Model the fold of this input.
Amino acid sequence: MHESGQQARAMDEYRACLERDPVCVDALWNYGELLRLREHFDEALDCFDRLVRLESRLRDKAAHRMAVCCAHLGQDDRAQALFEKQIAEDDDPLTHWEYAHFLLGRGRFTDAWPHYARRFDAGEKVGLKGMRFPYPSWCGQFEAGSTLIVSCEQGAGDEILFAAFLPSLLQRARSADMRVVVVCRPALVRLFRESFPSARVLGGMVTQEPDLCTIVKQSSIIRHIRIGDLPLWLDKPEPAAYLKPAPDDQRDARRLIASSRAGDGCTHIGIVWSANPLSSASNRRARNVPSELLNAWLKDIDGVRFYSLMPAEHCAVLAGVPDLHVTDLAFFLTDFSRTAAAMQCLDEIVSVCTSSANLSGALGLKTHVLLQKHADWRWCGDTAWYRDVVTYRQETRADWGNCLQALSANWR
Done:
Protein backbone atom coordinates (compact mmCIF):
# COMPACT_ATOMS: atom_id res chain seq x y z
CA MET A 1 0.00 0.00 0.00
CA HIS A 2 2.83 2.39 0.85
CA GLU A 3 4.55 1.89 -2.52
CA SER A 4 1.26 1.97 -4.47
CA GLY A 5 0.45 5.45 -3.20
CA GLN A 6 -2.17 4.47 -0.62
CA GLN A 7 -0.29 6.25 2.14
CA ALA A 8 -3.23 7.06 4.41
CA ARG A 9 -4.34 3.44 4.41
CA ALA A 10 -0.76 2.27 4.92
CA MET A 11 -0.42 4.55 7.95
CA ASP A 12 -3.58 3.07 9.46
CA GLU A 13 -2.21 -0.44 8.95
CA TYR A 14 1.19 0.40 10.47
CA ARG A 15 -0.50 2.09 13.42
CA ALA A 16 -2.69 -0.95 14.02
CA CYS A 17 0.32 -3.24 13.71
CA LEU A 18 2.24 -1.28 16.35
CA GLU A 19 -0.74 -1.35 18.70
CA ARG A 20 -0.65 -5.15 18.47
CA ASP A 21 3.14 -5.41 18.48
CA PRO A 22 4.95 -2.25 19.71
CA VAL A 23 8.36 -3.78 18.92
CA CYS A 24 7.71 -4.59 15.25
CA VAL A 25 10.83 -2.95 13.85
CA ASP A 26 9.81 -2.81 10.20
CA ALA A 27 6.50 -1.18 11.10
CA LEU A 28 8.35 1.42 13.18
CA TRP A 29 10.69 2.15 10.27
CA ASN A 30 7.99 2.48 7.63
CA TYR A 31 5.47 4.28 9.84
CA GLY A 32 8.14 6.72 10.95
CA GLU A 33 9.00 7.55 7.35
CA LEU A 34 5.37 8.14 6.40
CA LEU A 35 4.97 10.42 9.40
CA ARG A 36 8.12 12.31 8.38
CA LEU A 37 6.92 12.80 4.83
CA ARG A 38 3.66 14.20 6.19
CA GLU A 39 5.58 16.61 8.44
CA HIS A 40 4.58 14.93 11.73
CA PHE A 41 8.19 15.23 12.80
CA ASP A 42 7.79 14.66 16.53
CA GLU A 43 5.93 11.37 16.04
CA ALA A 44 8.32 10.30 13.30
CA LEU A 45 11.38 10.92 15.46
CA ASP A 46 9.79 8.95 18.29
CA CYS A 47 9.43 5.96 15.94
CA PHE A 48 13.04 6.20 14.79
CA ASP A 49 14.34 6.57 18.36
CA ARG A 50 12.36 3.52 19.48
CA LEU A 51 13.78 1.60 16.54
CA VAL A 52 17.36 2.53 17.46
CA ARG A 53 16.80 1.39 21.03
CA LEU A 54 15.44 -1.94 19.81
CA GLU A 55 18.14 -2.62 17.21
CA SER A 56 21.07 -0.86 18.91
CA ARG A 57 22.13 0.57 15.56
CA LEU A 58 21.18 3.06 12.89
CA ARG A 59 19.69 1.59 9.73
CA ASP A 60 20.89 2.76 6.34
CA LYS A 61 19.59 6.35 5.81
CA ALA A 62 18.27 6.51 9.37
CA ALA A 63 20.64 9.36 10.24
CA HIS A 64 19.25 11.35 7.29
CA ARG A 65 15.63 10.80 8.28
CA MET A 66 16.26 11.58 11.93
CA ALA A 67 18.30 14.68 11.06
CA VAL A 68 15.42 16.13 9.04
CA CYS A 69 13.04 15.56 11.96
CA CYS A 70 15.43 17.14 14.45
CA ALA A 71 15.96 20.13 12.16
CA HIS A 72 12.24 20.87 12.02
CA LEU A 73 11.85 20.34 15.77
CA GLY A 74 14.59 22.83 16.61
CA GLN A 75 17.01 20.20 17.92
CA ASP A 76 19.86 21.85 16.06
CA ASP A 77 22.90 20.21 17.66
CA ARG A 78 21.49 16.74 17.16
CA ALA A 79 20.37 17.55 13.62
CA GLN A 80 23.83 18.75 12.64
CA ALA A 81 25.53 15.68 14.11
CA LEU A 82 23.15 13.35 12.26
CA PHE A 83 23.49 15.19 8.94
CA GLU A 84 27.27 15.04 9.17
CA LYS A 85 27.17 11.36 10.13
CA GLN A 86 25.06 10.51 7.06
CA ILE A 87 27.28 12.54 4.72
CA ALA A 88 30.38 10.85 6.13
CA GLU A 89 28.79 7.45 5.49
CA ASP A 90 27.66 7.78 1.88
CA ASP A 91 27.98 11.41 0.66
CA ASP A 92 24.35 11.25 -0.49
CA PRO A 93 23.40 14.39 -2.50
CA LEU A 94 19.92 14.25 -0.97
CA THR A 95 21.45 14.64 2.48
CA HIS A 96 23.58 17.55 1.26
CA TRP A 97 20.34 19.14 -0.03
CA GLU A 98 18.53 18.78 3.30
CA TYR A 99 21.61 19.86 5.27
CA ALA A 100 21.91 22.96 3.09
CA HIS A 101 18.32 23.90 3.91
CA PHE A 102 19.01 23.39 7.61
CA LEU A 103 22.06 25.67 7.51
CA LEU A 104 20.45 28.30 5.27
CA GLY A 105 17.39 28.47 7.50
CA ARG A 106 19.68 29.38 10.39
CA GLY A 107 21.53 32.06 8.47
CA ARG A 108 24.73 29.99 8.23
CA PHE A 109 25.18 30.88 4.58
CA THR A 110 28.92 30.34 4.16
CA ASP A 111 28.65 26.82 5.62
CA ALA A 112 25.59 26.06 3.51
CA TRP A 113 26.58 26.93 -0.06
CA PRO A 114 28.94 23.97 -0.71
CA HIS A 115 26.14 21.60 0.30
CA TYR A 116 23.57 23.54 -1.73
CA ALA A 117 25.85 23.16 -4.76
CA ARG A 118 25.12 19.41 -4.71
CA ARG A 119 21.40 19.93 -5.38
CA PHE A 120 21.45 18.87 -9.04
CA ASP A 121 23.29 15.68 -8.11
CA ALA A 122 20.09 14.78 -6.26
CA GLY A 123 18.13 15.77 -9.39
CA GLU A 124 14.81 14.00 -9.72
CA LYS A 125 14.81 12.98 -6.04
CA VAL A 126 14.12 16.60 -5.15
CA GLY A 127 12.27 17.53 -8.34
CA LEU A 128 15.06 19.65 -9.83
CA LYS A 129 15.81 20.04 -13.50
CA GLY A 130 18.25 22.50 -14.99
CA MET A 131 19.50 23.73 -18.33
CA ARG A 132 22.61 21.96 -19.55
CA PHE A 133 25.36 23.81 -21.36
CA PRO A 134 28.48 22.25 -22.94
CA TYR A 135 30.87 24.67 -21.26
CA PRO A 136 33.24 24.43 -18.29
CA SER A 137 31.95 25.52 -14.91
CA TRP A 138 32.84 29.01 -13.77
CA CYS A 139 34.96 29.03 -10.62
CA GLY A 140 35.04 32.70 -9.77
CA GLN A 141 37.65 33.85 -12.28
CA PHE A 142 37.21 37.19 -14.09
CA GLU A 143 39.04 37.00 -17.43
CA ALA A 144 39.21 39.68 -20.11
CA GLY A 145 37.42 38.69 -23.29
CA SER A 146 35.62 35.75 -21.71
CA THR A 147 31.87 35.18 -21.53
CA LEU A 148 29.99 33.85 -18.52
CA ILE A 149 26.55 32.29 -18.99
CA VAL A 150 24.43 32.49 -15.84
CA SER A 151 21.44 30.17 -16.13
CA CYS A 152 18.46 30.50 -13.86
CA GLU A 153 16.83 27.53 -12.19
CA GLN A 154 14.01 26.16 -10.08
CA GLY A 155 11.11 28.58 -9.56
CA ALA A 156 10.73 32.24 -10.41
CA GLY A 157 11.21 33.08 -6.74
CA ASP A 158 14.64 31.43 -6.79
CA GLU A 159 15.63 33.35 -9.91
CA ILE A 160 14.57 36.61 -8.26
CA LEU A 161 16.30 35.92 -4.95
CA PHE A 162 19.64 34.88 -6.46
CA ALA A 163 19.53 37.84 -8.84
CA ALA A 164 20.66 39.80 -5.77
CA PHE A 165 24.17 38.57 -6.63
CA LEU A 166 24.08 39.97 -10.18
CA PRO A 167 24.96 43.63 -9.40
CA SER A 168 28.22 42.58 -7.76
CA LEU A 169 28.98 40.09 -10.52
CA LEU A 170 28.32 42.63 -13.26
CA GLN A 171 30.39 45.34 -11.61
CA ARG A 172 33.41 43.07 -11.37
CA ALA A 173 32.83 41.70 -14.87
CA ARG A 174 32.84 45.21 -16.36
CA SER A 175 36.13 45.99 -14.63
CA ALA A 176 37.64 42.81 -16.08
CA ASP A 177 36.13 43.24 -19.58
CA MET A 178 34.17 40.00 -19.15
CA ARG A 179 30.74 39.61 -20.75
CA VAL A 180 27.82 38.18 -18.78
CA VAL A 181 24.79 36.50 -20.34
CA VAL A 182 21.82 35.81 -18.06
CA VAL A 183 19.34 33.14 -19.15
CA CYS A 184 16.04 33.39 -17.25
CA ARG A 185 12.42 32.40 -17.75
CA PRO A 186 10.73 34.54 -20.44
CA ALA A 187 8.42 36.26 -17.95
CA LEU A 188 11.47 37.74 -16.19
CA VAL A 189 13.36 38.92 -19.28
CA ARG A 190 12.08 42.51 -19.45
CA LEU A 191 12.43 43.02 -15.70
CA PHE A 192 16.01 41.71 -15.70
CA ARG A 193 16.97 43.72 -18.79
CA GLU A 194 15.85 46.91 -17.09
CA SER A 195 17.44 45.99 -13.76
CA PHE A 196 20.77 44.71 -15.12
CA PRO A 197 21.48 46.73 -18.28
CA SER A 198 25.11 45.64 -18.63
CA ALA A 199 24.09 41.98 -18.93
CA ARG A 200 22.70 40.35 -22.04
CA VAL A 201 19.44 38.78 -20.90
CA LEU A 202 17.87 35.91 -22.84
CA GLY A 203 14.74 33.89 -22.24
CA GLY A 204 14.94 30.17 -21.74
CA MET A 205 13.35 27.30 -19.84
CA VAL A 206 14.58 23.91 -18.68
CA THR A 207 12.79 22.34 -21.64
CA GLN A 208 13.70 25.08 -24.12
CA GLU A 209 17.25 26.36 -23.96
CA PRO A 210 18.12 29.61 -25.79
CA ASP A 211 20.00 29.90 -29.06
CA LEU A 212 23.56 30.85 -28.13
CA CYS A 213 25.13 30.69 -31.60
CA THR A 214 25.90 34.42 -31.76
CA ILE A 215 27.41 34.41 -28.28
CA VAL A 216 29.59 31.42 -29.07
CA LYS A 217 30.98 33.18 -32.15
CA GLN A 218 31.85 36.29 -30.13
CA SER A 219 34.01 34.63 -27.50
CA SER A 220 36.63 31.91 -27.46
CA ILE A 221 36.36 31.48 -23.67
CA ILE A 222 32.89 30.57 -22.43
CA ARG A 223 31.97 29.34 -18.98
CA HIS A 224 28.69 28.54 -17.28
CA ILE A 225 27.24 28.73 -13.79
CA ARG A 226 23.77 28.23 -12.38
CA ILE A 227 22.51 31.32 -10.62
CA GLY A 228 22.14 29.45 -7.34
CA ASP A 229 25.88 28.74 -7.33
CA LEU A 230 26.95 32.39 -7.54
CA PRO A 231 27.18 32.53 -3.71
CA LEU A 232 30.09 30.08 -3.91
CA TRP A 233 32.19 32.85 -5.47
CA LEU A 234 30.54 36.12 -4.47
CA ASP A 235 29.82 37.62 -1.06
CA LYS A 236 26.20 37.79 0.04
CA PRO A 237 24.96 41.36 -0.53
CA GLU A 238 23.30 43.41 2.17
CA PRO A 239 19.50 43.56 1.75
CA ALA A 240 18.65 46.29 -0.75
CA ALA A 241 16.30 46.96 -3.66
CA TYR A 242 17.88 45.62 -6.85
CA LEU A 243 15.00 45.23 -9.32
CA LYS A 244 13.09 47.88 -11.26
CA PRO A 245 10.35 47.61 -13.89
CA ALA A 246 10.48 49.08 -17.39
CA PRO A 247 9.57 52.81 -17.54
CA ASP A 248 6.60 52.17 -19.85
CA ASP A 249 5.19 49.70 -17.35
CA GLN A 250 5.62 52.19 -14.51
CA ARG A 251 3.75 54.82 -16.51
CA ASP A 252 0.90 52.45 -17.40
CA ALA A 253 0.58 51.21 -13.83
CA ARG A 254 0.40 54.74 -12.44
CA ARG A 255 -2.36 55.61 -14.89
CA LEU A 256 -4.28 52.47 -14.03
CA ILE A 257 -4.07 52.64 -10.26
CA ALA A 258 -4.01 56.40 -9.69
CA SER A 259 -7.62 56.74 -10.80
CA SER A 260 -8.77 54.27 -8.15
CA ARG A 261 -6.86 55.79 -5.25
CA ALA A 262 -6.96 59.56 -5.83
CA GLY A 263 -7.76 61.34 -2.57
CA ASP A 264 -9.54 58.42 -0.91
CA GLY A 265 -7.25 58.37 2.15
CA CYS A 266 -7.12 54.58 2.14
CA THR A 267 -4.17 52.24 2.50
CA HIS A 268 -3.82 50.40 -0.81
CA ILE A 269 -2.64 46.82 -0.42
CA GLY A 270 -1.63 44.31 -3.07
CA ILE A 271 -2.51 40.77 -2.06
CA VAL A 272 -1.61 37.23 -3.17
CA TRP A 273 -3.07 34.29 -1.25
CA SER A 274 -2.81 31.46 -3.78
CA ALA A 275 0.40 29.77 -4.94
CA ASN A 276 1.29 28.62 -8.45
CA PRO A 277 -1.57 26.40 -9.71
CA LEU A 278 0.99 24.31 -11.60
CA SER A 279 2.73 23.28 -8.36
CA SER A 280 1.81 20.06 -6.58
CA ALA A 281 -1.50 19.79 -4.76
CA SER A 282 0.28 19.24 -1.44
CA ASN A 283 2.39 22.35 -2.03
CA ARG A 284 -0.69 24.45 -2.74
CA ARG A 285 -2.52 23.13 0.31
CA ALA A 286 0.43 24.04 2.52
CA ARG A 287 1.00 27.54 1.12
CA ASN A 288 -2.45 28.81 0.18
CA VAL A 289 -4.65 30.70 2.61
CA PRO A 290 -8.28 29.59 2.15
CA SER A 291 -10.29 32.42 0.62
CA GLU A 292 -13.12 32.17 3.13
CA LEU A 293 -10.64 32.49 6.01
CA LEU A 294 -9.00 35.54 4.46
CA ASN A 295 -12.43 37.06 3.90
CA ALA A 296 -13.43 36.51 7.53
CA TRP A 297 -10.31 38.13 8.99
CA LEU A 298 -10.03 41.14 6.67
CA LYS A 299 -13.63 42.02 5.83
CA ASP A 300 -14.29 44.49 8.66
CA ILE A 301 -11.13 46.61 8.37
CA ASP A 302 -11.88 50.22 7.52
CA GLY A 303 -9.67 52.42 5.38
CA VAL A 304 -8.05 49.74 3.23
CA ARG A 305 -8.46 48.72 -0.40
CA PHE A 306 -7.10 45.49 -1.79
CA TYR A 307 -5.70 44.73 -5.23
CA SER A 308 -5.33 41.14 -6.38
CA LEU A 309 -1.84 40.63 -7.82
CA MET A 310 -2.58 37.09 -8.96
CA PRO A 311 -2.60 36.16 -12.66
CA ALA A 312 -5.75 35.13 -14.48
CA GLU A 313 -5.51 31.42 -13.64
CA HIS A 314 -6.26 32.32 -10.00
CA CYS A 315 -9.48 34.20 -10.78
CA ALA A 316 -11.69 31.51 -9.23
CA VAL A 317 -10.39 32.22 -5.72
CA LEU A 318 -11.65 35.82 -5.92
CA ALA A 319 -15.19 34.53 -5.52
CA GLY A 320 -14.22 33.40 -2.02
CA VAL A 321 -13.68 36.96 -0.73
CA PRO A 322 -17.05 38.62 -1.45
CA ASP A 323 -16.80 41.02 1.51
CA LEU A 324 -13.46 42.53 0.57
CA HIS A 325 -13.04 45.50 -1.72
CA VAL A 326 -10.69 43.76 -4.19
CA THR A 327 -9.65 45.19 -7.55
CA ASP A 328 -8.51 42.41 -9.87
CA LEU A 329 -5.36 43.45 -11.79
CA ALA A 330 -4.88 40.13 -13.59
CA PHE A 331 -5.38 41.68 -17.04
CA PHE A 332 -2.41 44.00 -16.42
CA LEU A 333 0.01 41.39 -15.01
CA THR A 334 1.39 39.97 -18.24
CA ASP A 335 4.95 39.50 -16.95
CA PHE A 336 7.09 40.31 -13.91
CA SER A 337 7.95 43.81 -15.08
CA ARG A 338 4.26 44.73 -15.26
CA THR A 339 3.62 43.09 -11.88
CA ALA A 340 6.55 45.00 -10.36
CA ALA A 341 5.19 48.27 -11.75
CA ALA A 342 1.77 47.62 -10.22
CA MET A 343 3.33 46.76 -6.86
CA GLN A 344 5.24 50.05 -6.82
CA CYS A 345 1.95 51.96 -7.05
CA LEU A 346 0.62 50.38 -3.84
CA ASP A 347 1.38 51.08 -0.18
CA GLU A 348 1.99 47.54 1.03
CA ILE A 349 2.10 43.99 -0.34
CA VAL A 350 0.74 40.84 1.32
CA SER A 351 1.71 37.46 -0.11
CA VAL A 352 1.93 33.81 0.73
CA CYS A 353 5.24 32.07 -0.04
CA THR A 354 5.38 32.66 -3.79
CA SER A 355 7.50 34.51 -6.33
CA SER A 356 5.32 37.58 -5.64
CA ALA A 357 6.77 37.80 -2.13
CA ASN A 358 10.31 37.64 -3.51
CA LEU A 359 9.49 40.21 -6.18
CA SER A 360 8.07 42.67 -3.68
CA GLY A 361 11.06 42.18 -1.40
CA ALA A 362 13.53 42.68 -4.25
CA LEU A 363 11.78 45.94 -5.14
CA GLY A 364 12.36 47.15 -1.58
CA LEU A 365 8.64 47.44 -0.85
CA LYS A 366 6.89 47.04 2.48
CA THR A 367 5.97 43.36 2.37
CA HIS A 368 4.03 40.98 4.63
CA VAL A 369 4.61 37.26 4.00
CA LEU A 370 2.23 34.58 5.31
CA LEU A 371 4.15 31.35 5.92
CA GLN A 372 3.26 27.76 6.67
CA LYS A 373 4.73 26.31 9.88
CA HIS A 374 7.62 24.60 8.09
CA ALA A 375 8.41 27.31 5.55
CA ASP A 376 11.52 27.13 3.41
CA TRP A 377 14.94 28.56 4.18
CA ARG A 378 14.47 31.86 2.31
CA TRP A 379 12.44 33.27 5.18
CA CYS A 380 14.81 32.71 8.09
CA GLY A 381 13.82 35.16 10.81
CA ASP A 382 11.94 37.77 8.86
CA THR A 383 14.46 37.51 6.07
CA ALA A 384 18.15 38.02 5.54
CA TRP A 385 17.48 38.86 1.88
CA TYR A 386 15.05 41.77 1.73
CA ARG A 387 15.11 44.98 3.73
CA ASP A 388 11.42 45.64 4.49
CA VAL A 389 9.76 42.25 4.98
CA VAL A 390 7.76 40.99 7.95
CA THR A 391 6.84 37.30 8.15
CA TYR A 392 3.85 35.68 9.86
CA ARG A 393 4.45 31.98 10.50
CA GLN A 394 1.86 29.40 11.50
CA GLU A 395 2.15 28.31 15.12
CA THR A 396 0.26 25.11 14.33
CA ARG A 397 0.49 23.29 11.02
CA ALA A 398 -2.34 24.24 8.61
CA ASP A 399 -3.78 26.82 11.06
CA TRP A 400 -3.62 30.36 9.65
CA GLY A 401 -5.43 31.98 12.57
CA ASN A 402 -2.43 33.45 14.39
CA CYS A 403 -0.95 34.74 11.10
CA LEU A 404 -4.12 36.51 9.99
CA GLN A 405 -4.75 37.93 13.44
CA ALA A 406 -1.26 39.48 13.53
CA LEU A 407 -1.52 40.67 9.92
CA SER A 408 -4.91 42.32 10.31
CA ALA A 409 -3.75 44.11 13.47
CA ASN A 410 -1.55 46.31 11.25
CA TRP A 411 -4.62 48.13 9.90
CA ARG A 412 -7.12 48.04 12.76
